[in-house]
Amino acid sequence: MPHQDASLPHVVIIGGGFGGLFAARALRGAPVRITLIDRQNHHLFQPLLYQVATAVLSPGDIASPIRWILRGQPNVRVLLAEVTDIDPTGRTVTLEGRETLAYDQLIVAAGATHSYFGHEAWAAHAPGLKTLDDALELRRRVLLAFERAERETDPGRQRQWLTFAIVGGGPTGVELAGSLIEIARQTLRREFRMIDPESARVLLIEAGPSILASFPESLRERGRRSLRRLGVEVWERAAVTDIGDGFVQVGADPIPVETVIWAAGVAASPLGRALGVPLDRAGRVVVAPDLSIPGHPEVFVIGDLAHCPQPSGTPLPGVAQVAMQGATWTAANIRRRLAGQPTTPFRYRDLGNMATIGRASAVADLGWARFSGFPAWLAWLFIHLVWLVGFRSKVSVLLQWATSYVTFQRSVRLITGPPPAPPPLRH
Description:
Elements (H helix, E strand, L loop, with lengths): L9 E5 L3 H9 L6 E6 L3 E3 L4 H5 L5 H4 E3 H4 L6 E5 L2 E5 L4 E4 L4 E3 L2 E4 L3 E3 L17 H20 L3 H7 L1 E5 L3 H17 L13 E5 L11 H14 L2 E3 L4 E5 L2 E4 L2 E4 L2 E4 L3 E3 L16 E2 L5 E2 L2 E6 L4 E2 L12 H19 L14 E6 L2 E5 L4 E3 L1 H14 L3 H17 L20
Parallel strand pairs: 1-2, 1-9, 2-5, 9-21, 11-12, 11-17, 12-13, 19-22
Antiparallel strand pairs: 3-4, 6-7, 7-8, 10-18, 14-15, 15-16, 20-21, 23-24, 24-25
Helix pairs in contact: 1-9, 5-6
């Protein structure tokens, strides 16, 4: 029965996402014992989560058990638990049930959650997309909308069920919009008798001046044209002011819509507040150049929870490549600390930005090259396959994509969960 050497320095990692997983891997072979703690037993490849929500992929294609991923790394212990508190002075973390763990070095990679900008009541009507449960619930709502429309005899109510609103025009919103319109225009053709799925409306609502704000203007325009060519209605400078049962309100105008998806904002994990250090307006921890926190050089914060300023003064974006690079840099700094050497400031290398828009269409900004259309789509496919965890996942996803491309079908169109309640009577 394997045991960790209790005499070795203890590194606790909170979170099994990109930051936590890559940090654990980067400490392979280091003279430390590691405890990785996560509320879920799986690592989730979030960039492809929208494809689970839109019935392209199965949950198992983009998620793998953390224990399986780290099975060959004997210096790592994995705990399925939730961290409820951190005591940097006493160097302990508290788990639910008041169990405590002492640490010598701590990496906090707790990630982020949805932000409704003070309108938490909207969450019930406009779910976001951060977890597998979120993706399965969105898939359920989308597919049920077409089923409800098939049963509806009132033309107005049919249109309401066949209208989908996505709030937020970043990469996630754009990818969802393109995928949803393809479900309506391609996947569900000729499958219904009382409705025409091709008549479905997909609204992409962005409060700012442009969708894909992190991309250069030339790629934003190409993305905008591609979406409109697919049939997506792109609304820019359109602030959502209310969301309720059966409507989304833009400015003063309520729009009848049954399915609203939130892709507009994120907030850092509330665990950051337990560290007792300055936070930014989004709740992210303001870190030192080496990603440690003020007054506690043994505590590092990485990924979506970290506010790490660039030379321009703006913080690094909450994307996977920032978390992965921060994780490996932090692991190297922990090795330096154990060797009695000073840590070094984090230097981020921007590898570019990509977003897929639909079938054989994407935009890519790699810094040294900017392109769109089919070449960008191929590059997007290749990069996402490379970073997927597990050989089985890569093969399965490649086969699903190939089948979907050739047949226009989506193989995971399952409505799961409890039987749907009958539609309410409207007078």
